[in-house]
Structures are given as structure tokens and as C-alpha cells.
Amino acid sequence: MNELPLQGRIAVVTGSDSGIGRAIALALAEAGADVAISFRSKQESAEEVAEKVRAMGRRAFCARLDVSAADTADQYFEAVTRELGQVDILVNNAGIDGKTGDVAEIGIEDWDQVINVNLRGPFICIRKLLPGMIARGKGVILNITSVHEVIPWAGHTAYCAAKAGMAMMTRSMALELKDSGVRVVALAPGAIRTPINHDVWEDPQKMADLKTKIPLGRIGEVEEIARIARVLVSDDASYLTGVTVTVDGGMTAYANFSKGG
């Protein structure tokens, strides 16, 4: 039997108590990695994920993490290193939609909250783990962005700006780290069935409208994102860095043009 592709690797998946983060954490564990789970408020859900990881015969660590707070991040990653060892894989998944509204309507605090979690947070996590990766000459950073790094979304300007910022951070960092042995890749999901957007996929009318925007005609599942993430952080993707891999059922291909211009 072949060795599992992530056997012996240690991975951190932020925001792994539910949705895409949960699915990625479990997929990495299935591939052989020990996994550090994090949550901001849903401790019980995060502990359930950790137990599933342990049930696969892997080690798991679980603790609260506010990615936007540098001191909290320091404590979390120091604990991960003590419990599991040096981190080989960082998946920056934690994020929020934030308050919906036009720029003229939302407050500075609303904008800052989205930027702090979705863009500042990944930077804080990277900055904590990157020196160790560089010192060992290996590591993978996977930034979970969104199709909205390229597709504008009225009422969600802060979210789009943060995700676009993550994408450019990915590309720029890849150039900085070209000789280090550390790869930096982004993964942009499209419309995926998660708790955060249940109001859409539980409403037949909203769901019908959404499907018109997706050439494959259906919403994606978290496992479909997790399977791609598992490949991207493995040696199977060893020649991949500085790009965004989009998994969106064709949404960024502009479904409205499927029947001509």
C-alpha cells in the first residue's frame, strides 16, 4: 500500500469548526496529516472535528483563535508547535461575509472588521509560521479566497476587496519565496453549500437564480473544495505556486454568455 500523500505532515486549518474549513481539515487528516483545528466561537463543533481527526489515527489540536488578533495568534501557534510540532501546511480559511450594504451605508467599523479577519488575519498567521518554514526549506501556504477576488459583488465591497487582496498577496509572496522551498497558492471557491449561505440554498427562488450564474447548474459541496485543497498542499502540486485555482462550476466563465453575446 502506498504511503498517504500527507503522512507525517502537520497542518493548521483556520476556521475549521464548520463549512469548507471543516471539510479541508478532515480531508487532510484522511491523507495522513496531523491537524490543528481552530474556532472563534463554536468550540463544540471544533471539538467534534478534532475527534474525527483522532478517529482516523491522526493527532489533533483544538483551540480558539481570533486570526485578526496578533497576541491570540501567537498563543495559538505556540501551543500548536508544542503539541504537534513544526507546521508544514497552513490553510488560511477563516473569514466572514460582514455587514451587507453599499459603501455609503456601512460604517468604518464594519469595513475594518471584514478586512481585519479576511486579509489582516491571514497575514498574521503567515507571519507567525513562515520563518520556521523558511528555516526548514519547505512548507505550503494555501489561502482560501473566493470567486469574488475577480467577480464584483454589490453590497459586499469590503469582502471583495479582502479576497482580491489575498489573491495578490499570494502572488507577491510566491515571488518573494521563490528560492525558499515554500509554495504559496490560493483556492477560490464559487457558490458552495455551507452554513453561512443557507438562506440561499434553502430558498427555492434564490437557488434558482443562483443556478443561472453557474454553467454546471448546481451549487458546489464542501467536499469538492476539500479534495482540491488536499492536492494543492501535497507534493502532487509541487510545481504550482503564485496562482489562484478556481473551483466554481464555471461561474467565472460568465454563464450569461453561454448562448452568445
Describe the protein in words:
The chain is of the alpha/beta class and 261 residues long. It has one domain: Rossmann fold, CATH 3.40.50.720. Helices cover 43% and strands 14% of the residues. The protein has eight helices and seven strands; from the N terminus they run βαβαβαβαβαβαααβ. It has a seven-stranded parallel β-sheet, sandwiched between helices. Helix 3 runs parallel beside helix 4. It is globular and about 55 Å long. 43% of the residues are buried. The model has no long low-confidence stretch (mean pLDDT 95).
How are the SSEs placed, and which strands pair?
Blueprint lengths: L9 E4 L5 H12 L3 E6 L3 H13 L4 E5 L5 H14 L5 E4 L15 H29 L2 E6 L12 H20 L5 E8 L8 H4 L2 H8 L10 H11 L11 E4 L14
Parallel strand pairs: 1-2, 1-4, 2-3, 4-5, 5-6, 6-7
Helix pairs in contact: 1-2, 1-8, 3-4, 4-5
How many DSSP helices?
8
Total domain modules: 1
What would you say the CATH architecture is? 3-Layer(aba) Sandwich
Helix-strand makeup class: alpha/beta
Overall 3D geometry?
A: globular
The end-to-end distance, rounded to whole angstroms, is: 52 Å
Number of strands: 7
Adjacency order of strands in the biggest sheet? 3-2-1-4-5-6-7
Largest sheet: 7 strands, parallel
Instruction: Give the SSE order as H and E letters.
Output: EHEHEHEHEHEHHHE
pLDDT < 50 runs, ≥5 residues: none
Content of β-strand: 5-15%
CATH topology: Rossmann fold
